Amino acid sequence: MVPMGVLVSTATIPSFSTCRPSVPKRRRAAAFSIMAALSNDPVREWILTEGKATEIKRIIPVGGGCINLASRYDTDAGSFFVKTNRGIGPSMFEGEAIGLSAMYATNSIRVPKPYKVGALPTGGSFIIMEFIEFGMSRGDQSVLGRKLAEMHKAAKSEKGFGFDVDNTIGSTPQINTWTSDWVEFYAEHRLGYQLKLVLKKFGDSIIYEKGQRLMKNLRPLFEGVVIEPCLLHGDLWSGNISADKKGNPVILDPACYYGHNEAEFGMSWCAGFGGSFYNSYFEVMLKQPGFENRRDLYMLYHYLNHYNLFGSGYRSSAMSIIDDYLRMLEP
């Protein structure tokens, strides 16, 4: 989804094909100037105490998105990456931190280690995490595919499908109530929730009613499929994928939950996954029968979310997928 803050130095910002607009640089710089002037600054306080720094040498605004502001803090104890949001409380960043910690613990693909989440005294919230300096490219697609599959294979949940907390997909709430049945979880907490938002925001009863019909007819797509609750990044598009200076793949800005591993590819229309990515991935994670027939179903969740976040430009893609599946699945 939205690039909620890209961990890069200003000298090595990679070129991403973005799927949506970013915040103007002057606005980002102004916001950080205001924050830097605050005497009661919990970000500075943490860095100069628990972060073990004695001096903050400079604060550099770095690539951000249209939801959060992002900054690199250079100190005598190293660099830290900080995201702030002036309008949303700590719950959004708390969900991100829990997801990052879960992925970090798998010791598979590289993710930034989260350090601290808190509230800003003037309203809003922040998250402090490890700063990872990116290389000049997004790295090797085959390595990305293998490392992502290793994460999916390493982290499974005994609670079923969901997550310990609700989080966000962009700025949209993502409901992660534990559910034992994947089809039920995906229908209700992914497609169903987005469809309700579409109806509420746009009064779009046509896509809502067709989407409801699709939700009731999903099971044939999963016949003969073994579905395990794997830890998913949840929002894997090009802006959330990079590589460090050594070429190791890095993923960031997650919307984590435990789900069917194929759902990880729901943003593939904006991720640039190629053949080498999928070949490497399926060498580690078994390719299930009917995979190609489910690809668009997992894209639908993200198209609906883009519709809700950015308007009707994404409606036709979502409607086309729904209509195609209804023709396939309804008697």
From TrEMBL:
Does the entry feature the keyword ATP-binding, yes or no? yes
Subcellular compartments:
Plastid, Chloroplast
| Subcellular location, principal | plastid
Asked if the Swiss-Prot or TrEMBL record annotates the protein with the keyword Ligase, the reply is: no
One GO cellular component term of this record is:
chloroplast
Q: Which UniProt keywords apply?
A: ATP-binding, Chloroplast, Kinase, Nucleotide-binding, Plastid, Transferase
Q: Which reaction does it catalyse?
A: N(6)-D-ribulosyl-L-lysyl-[protein] + ATP = N(6)-(3-O-phospho-D-ribulosyl)-L-lysyl-[protein] + ADP + H(+); N(6)-(D-erythrulosyl)-L-lysyl-[protein] + ATP = N(6)-(3-O-phospho-D-erythrulosyl)-L-lysyl-[protein] + ADP + H(+)
Question: What EC number(s) does this enzyme carry?
Answer: 2.7.1.172
Question: Which molecular function term from Gene Ontology is one that the record holds?
Answer: ATP binding
Q: Which family does it belong to?
A: Belongs to the fructosamine kinase family.
- Functional summary from the UniProt entry: Initiates a process leading to the deglycation of proteins. Phosphorylates low-molecular-mass and protein-bound erythrulosamines and ribulosamines, but not fructosamines or psicosamines, on the third carbon of the sugar moiety. Protein-bound erythrulosamine 3-phosphates and ribulosamine 3-phosphates are unstable and decompose under physiological conditions.
Which PANTHER family does its entry note? FRUCTOSAMINE 3 KINASE-RELATED PROTEIN, PROTEIN-RIBULOSAMINE 3-KINASE
What is the protein name given in its UniProt record?
Answer: Protein-ribulosamine 3-kinase, chloroplastic
Q: Which organism is it from?
A: Dioscorea zingiberensis
Q: What is the lineage of its organism?
A: Eukaryota, Viridiplantae, Streptophyta, Embryophyta, Tracheophyta
